[in-house]
Each structure stands twice: as structure tokens, then as C-alpha cells.
Amino acid sequence: MDLFMQRVQEVHIGRTEVMEEYIAQLRLKTSVLEDKIIPKFDSLLDEQEHRKHMLVAGLRLFAKYGFDEGIAGHITVRDPVDTDTFWVNPFGRYFGKIKPDELVHVNSAGEIIYEANSLNNAAFK
Predict the structure, then answer these.
(1) How many angstroms separate the CA atoms of 88 and 86, rounded?
(2) End-to-end CA distance of the chain
(3) What span, in angstroms and rounded, lies between the C-alpha atoms of 90 and 120?
(4) Helix, strand, coil % in the chain, rounded to nearest 5
(5) What is the SS3 assignment for 99?
(6) Which residue in 74, 108, 114 sits closest to 91, CA to CA?
């Protein structure tokens, strides 16, 4: 092997070692962040309440930035208790005023399981 190829191989090996160390550090940072960012729940009902509140927060952010135009807009979140169902915002309501107890609980066919208001059918078309 000539000197040039030997040097190329040394650089490649050095870069590989650096990259492996970098990846290991990223994995460590990611696991620490996951512990801080991704909440842990005592029950699926606690997780369900959290998801509903996060859905409402998302709706309010959409309203704040003007992404609530018209009546067909919707955001959904899967229910952790019954994973074949979803929570969706009620039809025709301003995103910025929706509360968690006003969300509509539906299955994938759009059949209402729980409704405080009317269903937004655009979520299932």
C-alpha cells in the first residue's frame, strides 16, 4: 500500500471513530431529553387527558397563527385507551375557544362515540 492510501485509510478510521463517539453522545443526549420531554403516565386515562389537552393546545396554536380558516379544518389525536378511535375538534367551532371536554370521540368510520357538539365530517372524507 502506498503512503497516500495508508493516509487515506488512517483518516477514514479516525473519522469513523469520531463519528461513533459523536453518535454515542447524541444517543445519550436523546435518552436524557426523552426522559424530560416525553411524559410518563400512571394510567391510560391520564394519558388520554394529556392527549386531549395537547390537541386543544394545537388547535389554539392553529387559531393564533390563522390556520383555522373556514369550517372544514380539523386536527385529530388517537385515543390511547381505545386505539381504534380518535378525538377531533367539533364542527364549525373556532379553534381558539375549544376546551378538552368539547372534543368529539369517534371511530375510524366517523361514528360518534362521545359528542358534546357536532362532528366535523371532513376529518373522515
Answers:
(1) 6
(2) 65
(3) 6
(4) 55, 15, 35
(5) coil
(6) 74
pLDDT one-digit tens code per residue, 17-48: 767 777 777 777 777 666 667 788 999 999 99
- The DSSP output letter for 29 is H
CB 86 within 8 A of CB 120: no
How far is residue 11 from each of residues 95, 102, 109, 118, measured CA to CA in Å? 56, 61, 58, 64
Amino acid identity for residue 64 in this structure: K
Considering the chain, what percentage of its residues have pLDDT values greater than 90? 38
- Residue 102 carries which side chain, given as an amino acid letter? E
Strand order in the sheet with 76-78: 76-78, 85-88, 104-107, 112-114
Write out the three cell numbers for 109: 368510520
CA of residue 58 relative to chain centroid, distance: 10
Q: In this structure, what are the phi and psi dihedrals at residue 7, rounded to the nearest 5 degrees?
A: -65, -40
As given in the structure block, the three cell numbers for residue 115 are 359528542
Cell of 39: 411524559
Cβ–Cβ under 8 Å, residues 31 and 23:
no
| Residue 83 DSSP code | T
